[in-house]
Amino acid sequence: MRISAKADYAVRATAELAGAGLEPPIAAEALASAQRIPHRFLEGILSDLRRDGIVMSQRGPRGGYRLARPAEEITVADVVRAVDGPLVFVRGERPSQLEYAGAAAGLPEVWVALRANVRAVLETVSIADLRAGTLPEVVRSLTRDEAAWTNP
Questions:
Q1: How far is CA 142 from each of CA 27, 121, 122, 147, 148, rounded to the nearest angstrom?
Q2: Where are the alpha helices (DSSP H) in 36-92?
Q3: Of 24, 42, 22, 23, which Cα lies nearest the Cα of 32?
Q4: Contact indicator for 64, 57 with CB cutoff of 8 Å
Q5: Cα 84 to Cα 138: distance, rounded to the nearest angstrom
Q6: 111-120: per-residue pLDDT in tens?
Q7: pTM of the model
Q8: Tell me, what's the pLDDT at 134?
Q9: What structural domains and CATH numbers belong to the chain?
Q10: CA triplet 76, 52, 95: central angle to 5 degrees?
Q11: Is the dihedral of CA 59, 13, 44, 78 positive or negative?
Q12: Which helix (H) or strand (E) holds 110?
């Protein structure tokens, strides 16, 4: 599974906004600079996040962006879905809608299990958790395995 640059940037920008609280709004340029995200790319991401109700914007000389609801109520999964759509797709289809024949007949269950595990992590971590560095134990326990940090 790949995490797109768009999703990575969106989560980082949202975490940065969580650190700022509700006042004052943060300019897109400041967010881009703080997280080393290309400004023009971030503008599109912020538009997606605004459309999904994760951030809100304020125009004017003191304008910028802030979270639309408390960081504790926004999960990493919410942010990823806002910019990339469903968490796990196989060839553009939901895993539960796939059917295979013969030796591959069990593959939809593998894809559904993958989706369930991705959800188990991304829906458990709130933006507040991320910002505070207090990840849930279910996530921390997965990272304790040395093999989790290497690619075979």
A1: 36, 9, 13, 10, 7
A2: 39-51, 76-84
A3: 42
A4: yes
A5: 24
A6: 889 889 999 9
A7: 0.88
A8: 92
A9: 5-149 (1.10.10.10)
A10: 60
A11: negative
A12: helix 107-122
